[in-house]
Specification:
By secondary structure, the chain is mainly beta. The protein contains 1 helix and 8 strands, in the order E-E-E-E-E-E-E-E-H. The mean pLDDT is 87.
C-alpha cells in the first residue's frame, strides 16, 4: 500500500509526519519525493528539502546536506532562475531504508527565503516482531 503526503514548507520550516504505531509493526520506505516552487517561473529559488528520522535541533543544518548523517533519509534540491530560460534543475536522492517511527521534513531556500511545496509517497510494509525491533533500535541509537 502506498501512502502519499503533501504540503507547503516555509523557509527554515519543518513538518512532522506521524507514522509511529504502538508495536511498530508497520514500516515505511520512501518511493517518491518531489518538490516544486510555490510560484514556478516567477521567483528565483534554490530549495533544499530533507527528510529526517530525527528533527535537527539547529535550523542551520536545513541547508547542509551530509550523507554521512545516518538520521537523514532523503534530500531534494531544486534551483530556478527567472533570468534564464529553462534554468530549473532538480536533484532527488533517497535511501531505501525501512523505518517505523515519525519522520520530519525540513526546508531551506538559499536564495530569497520563499516557500516550497513537496509531495512524498511512502510504501507501507508489514514488519514481523524482529524487524520492528531492529527499526526501533536503529532509531534509538541515532537519538543518542
Amino acid at each position: 500500500m502506498i501512502k502519499s503526503y503533501r504540503g507547503r514548507l516555509v523557509h527554515l520550516g519543518n513538518e512532522k509526519i506521524r507514522l509511529g504505531t504502538p508495536q511498530g509493526k508497520i514500516g515505511y520506505k520512501i518511493t517518491k519525493l518531489e518538490i516544486i516552487n510555490v510560484q514556478p517561473g516567477a521567483l528565483d529559488y534554490e530549495h533544499v528539502v530533507q527528510v529526517w528520522k530525527i528533527l535537527p535541533s539547529d535550523t542551520s543544518t536545513y541547508d547542509d546536506v551530509k550523507f554521512d548523517d545516518s538520521s537523514m533519509l532523503a534530500v531534494a534540491y531544486l534551483k530556478g532562475d527567472t533570468a534564464e530560460l529553462n534554468a530549473d534543475s532538480t536533484t532527488i536522492i533517497f535511501d531505501n531504508e525501512v523505518f517505523n517511527q515519525d519522520i520530519f521534513i525540513t526546508h531551506s531556500d538559499l536564495k530569497d527565503g520563499v516557500q516550497c511545496n513537496y509531495y512524498m509517497e511512502l510504501e507501507q510494509i508489514k514488519l514481523n516482531e524482529t524487524e520492528a525491533l531492529v527499526a526501533i533500535v536503529k532509531n534509538l541509537r541515532i537519538e543518542q
